[in-house]
Each structure stands twice: as structure tokens, then as C-alpha cells.
Amino acid sequence: xxxxxxxxxxxxxxxxxxxxxxxxxxxxxxxxxxxxxxxxxxxxxxxxxxxxxxxxxxxxxxxxxxxxxxxxxxxxxxxxxxxxxxxxxxxxxxxxxxxxxxxxxxxxxxxxxxxxxxxxxxxxxxxxxxxxxxxxxxxxxxxxxxxxxxxxxxxxxxxxxxxxxxxxxxxxxxxxxxxxxxxxxxxxxxxxxxxxxxxxxxxxxxxxxxxxxxxxxxxxxxxxxxxxxxxxxxxxxxxxxxxxxxxxxxxxxxxxxxxxxxxxxxxxxxxxxxxxxxxxxxxxxxxxxxxxxxxxxxxxxxxxxxxxxxxxxxxxxxxxxxxxxxxxxxxxxxxxxxxxxxxxxxxxxxxxxxxxxxxxxxxxxxxxxxxxxxxxxxxxxxx
Length: 383
Ligand code: PLP
Description:
16% strand; alpha/beta; binds pyridoxal-5'-phosphate; four-stranded antiparallel sheet; 15 strands; Aspartate Aminotransferase, domain 1; globular; 40% helix; Aspartate Aminotransferase, domain 2; seven-stranded mixed sheet
């Protein structure tokens, strides 16, 4: 009676195990002042212009002339157009190719509704665990891993590709040349790329593509997913979107049409106040405020990176992405315990993202500069 694939899926072992270890540490050391460089959640409060827009929208809805009922399932036109104006006009993308959702996680999970479950799916290792979980729940049988450190296409043929750049957990962003290899790979194998750009706004290197649509031909092979979660502090508000270009045609069928059908069937959309908040984050004032927050996280990343560099440590990331993947050269769960007990720092063991992450630790730079300074002092003492 129950979906057998779901029954086989375990609750994410990684975060459960971290919670257990941290809570047993807290019981033994109730006064310990822990620094959390683990889960990549925001560390700063909501920007004022977003707060004002949400408050005004709620106020508007409480008045007769401003009341709102169900909104369009694919998102209000004002937000779809604001996204085009800010991000996608240069790629000649229209608002009807933008679909508003409550975030990338939902879009990643729902995307599989469109595809046959006998496709060969490509997923990196190490990787953001959601991709493997959703592929398993949906019953994809042929799942092939590719190298999550280099993030380059494998030799094997894949048909549905989960690609994340800037990448979680490795923290690096694909170069134009390497992203071009993926677009060519997808064309050669008639594959579709689900391109997770959750951290696109963190890219500092102006040579790195922020969108896959900077690569010629990408509109014919890729769906790009973006989120307000990390770039505008929406992890607790929930808003994101997928870009599904009209040029993406499979077996003679426009994927854009199917995406619209699926989305309008399965959801009644994101609430009006949250979409007004997302729109405000793209206004001149909103962008100024949220970019200042991103700069704060980047400055924290720079503090940790500089420290690791000075110590002669090997690591990836932290420049174009708020994660640092630190090669610790010991079993990553052992290092997790050492960091927790001796430095009172929570980080994520790389092996939790797949075998390819063993002997690494992921440090999130979603922290204030003060926290980052405190963390490096503790790491120094640990040495
Ligand atoms: N994609 C990646 C790579 C992430 O790291 C995360 C969150 O950590 C998400 C998606 C989730 O995004 P959202 O909050 O929009 O669901």
C-alpha cells in the first residue's frame, strides 16, 4: 500500500547524527558557548525593506479594497517580471518562463514528475543530500555518481543531471569552460540539467558564470533553480523559482508547458505577502541591503580562509560560495568530535555528503565576522 521507495529511505542520517552528538555534548557541558558553522542557515535578521513590504502586504489584505484570495499557481506577474528585469532580461527570458515556488527544495523534488523513472540520473559525490533522497523516493533505479570535487561530466551517459554550482558542499563555482562542457555533454546525450543556483549571488569572481544561460545553447538543455533563501534571508519565509525556457523541448514537447501544468495542478502558489517581500528584495533598496548581508558572510569567509591558508591547510571553496571544504586528513566524524569537544565548534563531516567527502569537513561561513574571528582563535588553540 505504501510507496516502497519511501519506506527504503532513511531520515537524513547526517543531521540526525549531528543533533544527537551535539545534544549529548550540551548535556555534559551546559555552559559551553558553541559556534555553529554547520547547517548553512542565515545568521542575520531580515532586511528592513523586505520586512516593510511584507507588513504592508498583510495590511493591504486586511482592508476591503486590498483583499486577496488564491493567487496564480505559477506566481504573481509582478514578481516574475521583477526577476526577469533583475536577472534574466539579458538572456532574453520572458516572465512566463519563470515559475515561483516556496524554494529550490520543492522544485527539485517536483521536477521528477516530468520524467520517466527509467532514465539514468547523474548525481555528484559528495553532494547536497536532497538529490539522492528525492531520486530514491521517486523510484529512479539508475543513479550514476560523478566526481563532486572536480564537478566535471563523467564518461558514462546520463539523461537527467542534478548539477549545483556554486556547489554545496565543496564551495566552488564552475568556470565558463567547465560549464560549457556540461552543456555540450547534455546536448550530446539529449540530457536535461537541473541546475541548482542557490548560491549564485555569492559568486565574487566576475569571470564565473552566474547563470547557466550565459553558456550558448543552455536554454535547450537546462532548467535553472534559484532561491531567495540564502541571498535575501528567506530560509524562514520560503520563496524561490525555476526558469524553464521555451527552447527546452523533449520528444517534441515544450517542458515549459508541462511545468506550468504540473505546478498549477499541484500547488496554489506562494502567499502574496511573501512574494511582495521577494519583489522588495529585488528593488534598489532591497538589493543594497541584501548585498550588504552577503558581503558580511563573504567577509566571514575571508577570515576563515585566510586563517586556513596561513596554517598551510588544504581546502576548497569559501570565495564564490559560503562553504569551505577543508581537507582534514582524518575520518571526518572523528574530526567532528574533536572540533566539538576541544573547540566547541559545530561543522559538518564531509562523509555525510557521500563517500567522496570522507576526510573533509564543511565549514559554513553564514556567520558574523565576530563569530568567524572567535572560531579561528579556537581553531588556533586546537592546533
Ligand atoms: N540547494 C542547495 C544546494 C542548498 O544548499 C539548499 C539549502 O541549503 C537548498 C537548495 C534549499 O533551498 P531552498 O531554501 O530554496 O529550498
